[in-house]
Amino acid sequence: GENVEQHPSTLSVQEGDSAVIKCTYSDSASNYFPWYKQELGKRPQLIIDIRSNVGEKKDQRIAVTLNKTAKHFSLHITETQPEDSAVYFCAASPYTGTASKLTFGTGTRLQVTL
Amino acid sequence: NAGVMQNPRHLVRRRGQEARLRCSPMKGHSHVYWYRQLPEEGLKFMVYLQKENIIDESGMPKERFSAEFPKEGPSILRIQQVVRGDSAAYFCASSPQQTNEKLFFGSGTQLSVL
Asked: Closest Cα partner for B35 from B103, B102, B82?
């Protein structure tokens, strides 16, 4: 099965700085890579996703890059703000068209300090 | 359009009791997924269901755990004879019929076993 590793487990940055979270996956069949943000006590929410036919995707201050050859993908948050503080999970899935099963990383706790 | 609804929000059970967790998917969604989240860990896939069918239960413990998604009513995750190790947050997610890679999570049920 798929194995997703995520680093770092905790990350502290100053407001305005950039944050980078990295994930690797093992199954070359995986072709869908979402990122979820989970604030304390809240539900995980999808913030951005990328498919294997795309190398990079950006949405305002958030960007995700994918290197299929190396089997790794990264989340980049620029100009961090206190409200970015949360746990971020990467995930990988083979999209079969009839079913999907996400395998999640273990999460990165991001703390944005003033 | 209401989101994914889970209840109860918190559930306390004594060892040996049964726990029933309910999940109503978003309107129009016919795919339901259950995930378990242990403290400081990522989301672990348990089971994937469509109406009246279990599609993938590879993440479910072989004993004491069962899930259903009847034709009418919510999906139910049932844990019999709970043990302290079952204490966790259980999240339900749903996805639409047409595309099923984007998951919409409920707020979760925090199960505490005394």
From this structure: B103
